[in-house]
Amino acid sequence: MNYQILKETSNFLSNKHKLLIDGHWVDSSDGNSFDVFTPANKNKIAEVCFASSQDVDKAVSSARNSFDIGVWSGMKPLDRSKILWKWADLLESKIDHISEIEVLDNGMPVLIAKTFIQYGLDWIRYFAGMTDKVLGKNISSALTGNGENFHSYTSLEPIGVVGLILPWNGPFGTFLIKVAPALAAGCSCIVKPAEDTPLSALLLAETALEAGIPPGVLNVLTGDASTGEALVHHKDVDKISFTGSTSVGKKIVNACSHDLKRITLELGGKSPCIIFDDCDLESAIPAAAMAIFTNSGQVCFAGSRLYVQEGVYDEFLKGIAEFSKGLKVGNGFDPDTMLGPLISEIQFNQVNKYVQEGLEEGAEVIIGGDGDISDGYFFKPTVFTKINPSMKIAREEIFGPVLAATKFQDLDEVISLANDTQYGLGAGVFTSDVNKAHSVAAKIQSGNVWVNHYGGMHSALPFGGYKQSGWGRELGEDGFKAYTEQKTVSIKLST
Prior knowledge:
The protein has 495 residues and is α/β, with parallel strands linked by helices. The chain has 2 domains: 7-267 and 470-488, Aldehyde Dehydrogenase, Chain A, domain 1 (3-Layer(aba) Sandwich); 272-458, Aldehyde Dehydrogenase, Chain A, domain 2 (3-Layer(aba) Sandwich). Helix content is 39%, strand content 23%. The strands form 8 sheets. Strands 17-20-21-14-13-23-24 form a 7-stranded mixed beta sheet, with helices on both faces. α3 (77-93) runs antiparallel to α6. It is globular.
């Protein structure tokens, strides 16, 4: 079926998309470009310039110059705030256009796209309001051992030039979760979107210029891993923020160790969703299902490990299977679609491989287990039972709509099972006992614990992981401070 798109979306796609460097849209220095395809039907939707290492040099130089002369970093915080608010307002006026770009670029259902877009708008406005509210400390009576008197204080200053490397699973949101606090703090940015989904970043940047972001403060370089690698290794970049796989995150840490760049990493996950027998099953069943099936499981904190207390295990799994049967898999423009396509043939094959390995290792599929690659990269919601904790489907991040379900007896057992992972990004707990909820939340080794719901990223709540799920936090005051350096000033007072 063909779906009608807005004229402005059609016009946007028809242009060859250039790089944003120093406030200008420019071709790549070597003339190279690449095609972008929609995962829903494999059709080409756009042509995008491919940034070379020379283009990275130009973008970093532009960002460094804008930072050093203070066109943004030296602007009054309230004036920065006004521009960020205007940016959010402009984006909100284009929400239908942006959501179409997200559906075409990533494949996600349009309702999911609009939800993620609203999150992003909230984040811009939250950080816009923080520009003049995150303050240092005044320490007025600092004394040395010999009785000399000092007045001391701390201040927060923008960290400088930041390289922001984005994943493909949430292009709009991951752009703003990094760019909004970085700009609010006064940094200059170079954004490298994922090769599979570069279009949202270009549209966001276009609107940022319209809102009044000065030249050089926001640069966008489209390309592949080599573009990101050049950015990570560049000596004039002060910080890297990366969202993606744990394996790539480790490579970035190694690269940044040579000049001790500041780093924020939001990496992989294998998050548990825990169902106690005293919970409200009617609300827990759809919540647990969508914890893994939202965005076809292509979510870093997806609840891919389901632990159900034995007294309600059979009833709960029956409910999950019935609920999953009603989830429509299809084109994201269909308002009834709940699961869009996987991002690419590579990802489809990876998910399918994990499913086959799960079967070979003795797990049992109660629903799903296959997909359709004839048109787009569609995979059915899949639920495994008879799980052994050593199985790959129980230990490795699949990044697809695949759920591994296990029964447990008591709290101690499920805590041990839930924590038996290299990851620690998210966890869900469903219970009617508030004391139990607090106890489990305290014992789970995870940066985020959701009780009687799953997921959600509020502007004021820091988000990040334990263990190999990352370093640092995004969102909240911590997310703002991640783009600052703290300075201590101490003044000796005359006696």
